[in-house]
Amino acid sequence: MRYYDIVVNGEKITEVSAVPVHLKELAMGFLHSNGYIEDPGTVEGITVEDGEIKVTASPDFEFRMRYLRERGVEPLELIDLSPVTSPFSVTTEKIYEKLASVMNNARNLPYSIISDVNGYLFFSEDVHPQNSFYKVVGRAVFDHFDLRSSFIVISHHILPEDVVRAAYLGIPILGSFSGTSDLAASVAESLGVTLFGITLDGLEVFTYPSRIKT
């Protein structure tokens, strides 16, 4: 684990402690998932050197940061989230199939998986659960993968902020091996996100079960 500054156009945005793999994905996923950039095309390049993840972005980023600073708010506070309306669905069998294909690679770290019903699949781990989420989102963005036709499974407990990020990105299905809170389920209900948990007894769907077929 190392500490890294995420720096955009010379300005430090945040510091993260992370496993030193998929760091470009981490930066892209962090910036996009938290609303610092609305269009991934804003990012023109990312390099990693000397404890910094350096992002070069178009002037649109500077305009957005100036707007945020003037109002003293976080990026997601500016966004009026609409419920996710994606018709995407997946079978229980497909979820287990995708999970089985990567679980042998899992170590004793928090992890996230992003996939669709076809061949797309990416898995990443990190010491901090949210970093693994950012990494899989970042890779999907680099791959021009349609987040609206995807599901993400995380190893950690689903928190309300996980649901908000998923809804902002248009991700219709979010699952966990560690369950979810009542508040997260309530937020998911209002934002149109399907939540599910994987237990010893099978897969339990908490919201919008029509997206998961048996």
3D structure, described in words:
Strand 3 and strand 4 (52-57) form a beta hairpin. The protein folds into two domains: 2-78, Roll (Ubiquitin-like (UB roll)), CATH 3.10.20.10; 90-213, 3-Layer(aba) Sandwich (Cytidine Deaminase, domain 2). It is α/β, with parallel strands linked by helices. The protein has helices spanning 23-33, 59-71, 92-103, 129-142, 160-169, 182-191, and strands at 2-8, 11-18, 43-49, 52-57, 90-91, 111-115, 121-125, 151-154, 173-176, 194-199, 202-205, 212-213. Helix 1 (23-33) crosses helix 4 (129-142) and helix 5 packs parallel to helix 6 (182-191).
Number of domain units: 2
Rg, alpha carbons: 17 Å
CATH C-level class of the largest domain is Alpha Beta
Number of strands: 12
Looking at how many chains there are and whether they match, the oligomeric state comes to single chain
The share of residues in helices is 25-40%
- Largest β sheet strand count, sense and barrel closure: 6 strands, mixed
How many separate helices?
A: 6
CATH architecture of the largest domain: 3-Layer(aba) Sandwich
**CA-CA gap between termini:** 40 Å
Q: What ranges have pLDDT less than 50 throughout 5 or more consecutive residues? A: none
- What's the arrangement of strands in the largest beta sheet? 7-6-8-9-10-11
Task: Give the ordered list of helices and strands.
Answer: EEHEEHEHEEHEHEHEEE
CATH topological fold name of the largest domain: Cytidine Deaminase, domain 2
The CATH H-level superfamily of the largest domain is Cytidine Deaminase, domain 2
Structural class: alpha/beta
The average pLDDT is 94
What share of the residues does DSSP label as strand, in percent?
25-35%
The gross shape turns out to be globular
